[in-house]
């Protein structure tokens, strides 16, 4: 979310309309680029007690899953989430499943909300809200631990609250947003439809479709670099093809390393021609170890620095140089390889061919079913995987062949890639930050008229 607040026109547009903004952020103390009238360190937040709060929250999640089956959550639960449940949590899950025919999920969730509002998770946040009485509290990460605590304090004080759904997969993969919001901001019509499906009360609330503000940065001249400049910064040869492997979370798909290792060996041996490889770690998991591991393959293989590993994860942000690397990596990539991540969308916006793993490259493929189901079952990615806009590969040799073919014929699947970008992002005009600002202002004004 720091990309949206630091580098789009959202906050400037709000200020231009005469509204003051205050940001509560876990990373603001590390960087001075946040553009707001006030930036506060995020107030201290404590967790709910397991009994009764978290046990009942999980009961609520299981009840909704039983009454409103969701392909993504059913798959994730079956393949990995439910495997580590304690005996007590298994009992709660079974109780929810048995009582599902008898209970109203809506009424259960509203009762749970009332219970949660009896507990204060952030007295410090509550004190600030009570003193300042903002016209609107916007959660930019409504599924996150910290944001939810402040939303709860705002609801306890009767303050209007709205939610910006941070990413295109959140509604179909995350646990329930229990608190009631007065309005929502989403990327696309598809996300709006999912919001209405999973949160029926939202049909009676304002929902603003603004596009994906983070991708405004792809259209900003200040981040545009020529291929020559980008290659100089990343120690690459501008005359040679650039292959990018974008890694996901090692907690979710640890086997991706074997796909990277295969590409490294293919490039080092010349089997992919005179190509170069950029390995791009997930920003939350860039600890510098991968650079050390692959340094002997330099300069044919370069590992980007995507975040600040010296900082705690909650305090990390991407500075302007790292944003420039992110944007121009996909602007100048010749082929992008990944496993079913938002990197697919990054590449599609710039019309860069995408090779997507449809298999677990680990020895023995222990997560083969997970890789297949993310692509062919999960709500957010199935339409992309089956659109024809990405090349699904079933083994390492197919991956190499697909990369080789795309290097020779980058125009393949171009129209389908355009569909992917339109489907996920809604708008691609660099103005989503402006639309987000207008949505926030409208929500604040509507709250003032209540």
Structural overview:
With 450 residues, the protein is an alpha/beta fold. It folds into 3 domains: 2-47 and 119-215 and 431-448, Rossmann fold, CATH 3.40.50; 50-114, no CATH class; 226-425, 3-Layer(aba) Sandwich (Rossmann fold). 45% of the residues lie in helices and 10% in strands. The protein is built from 20 helices and 12 strands. The protein has helices at 2-7, 10-16, 50-67, 71-79, 87-99, 105-116, 123-132, 145-156, 170-173, 189-198, 227-233, 256-268, 289-294, 320-332, 343-349, 368-376, 382-385, 396-408, 414-425, 432-448, and strands at residues 22-25, 38-41, 137-139, 161-164, 183-186, 207-209, 242-246, 276-280, 301-303, 335-338, 354-357, 391-393. The strands form 3 sheets. It has a 6-stranded parallel sheet, with helices on both faces. The chain has a 4-stranded parallel sheet with strand order 3-4-5-6, sandwiched between helices. The two termini are 29 Å apart.
Distance between the termini: 29 Å
Number of strands: 12
* Widest sheet: strand ordering: 9-8-7-10-11-12
* Overall body shape: globular
Instruction: Give me the CATH superfamily of the largest domain.
Output: Glycogen Phosphorylase B
Number of structural units classed as domains? 3
Structural class: alpha/beta
CATH class annotation of the largest domain: Alpha Beta
Radius of gyration: 23 Å
Mind telling me which CATH architecture of the largest domain this is?
A: 3-Layer(aba) Sandwich
What is the helix tally? Answer: 20
The helix content is: 40-55%
Low-confidence stretches: none
Q: Averaged pLDDT, please?
A: 95
The profile of the biggest β sheet is:
6 strands, parallel
Strand content: 5-15%
CATH topology of the largest domain: the name is Rossmann fold
